[in-house]
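User: New here, please read:
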Amino acid sequence: MKFHRSILPLLLLASLCTAGPGCALVRKGAARMVTPIASQLSEGLMHQSDVELVRDGAPAFLLMLDALTESHPENPAVLLAAAEAQLAYATAFVDKANEARAKTMYRKAMTYGQRALARHNRQFEEALDAHADVFARSMSGFRKRDARALITTATAWVMWIIANSDSPAALGEMPKVLAMMGRVQELDPGIREGGVDLFYGIYYTVLPLGGGRDLDKARAHFERSMAIAGPDYLLTQVTFAEFYARYAFNPELFEETLTQVLDASPNVPEFTLMNAVAKMRARVLLDQMEEMF
């Protein structure tokens, strides 16, 4: 596969790299090689069917991307690849197992994404620490080409907020995430297999009772996300069960949806890893069903 032939020299360079001055030259050479394919680095993992292999092998991949961001700190393609990889690994393998580590990884993914976005929109960079209204106005500087970085950064940001939900300061940053997702919805509403609607589905589900929770609105967003993603992308269906069916206290819908996921056999290469993760999560949720309901 062309991608793997391209990335192999980079992995070898990363594994041979030491702390001396020669290492800096290696990192710079690797960065020049990776720039044309940086946007594909995280996506390459999505073709893997062996979840344990990815879980065990991905840390070396993450370290390589960290090194590349140090040698090319203003390269948006490298920064975005690093953000996507950190976010994907933390969400799939760390979130439930190690909360402290997950916080660190979400923060790193968010920061990488913010730095990537700042390369295309200086107003955004200046508004990061400003009031939410000022931040929202900076969204007008983004174009459709920025939608991928916007949704990656916003997702990492909201995951960091959730991981720090006991912090009023962290919760106070939610309006900025909503502004970013709103801009993504304007620019590319179908991006990431309906990722914007998936976000809003979760958002309207987990809001407090009397504080904005709207299960009808949540279900509409989930259904739109599943329609965009299609039946071969299983993670959206698992998320629908985990959030909507659970919060709606609908055990029949919960069990039916997760059973359908386990029975499904989609053959879409770019969904291979996430579908494997989805099936793994579906089994865990079904095992916990009695505790939930």
About this structure: Residues 194-293 form one domain. The chain has a mean pLDDT of 86. The chain is about 75% helix and 0% strand. Residues 213 and 227 are 23 Å apart (CA to CA).
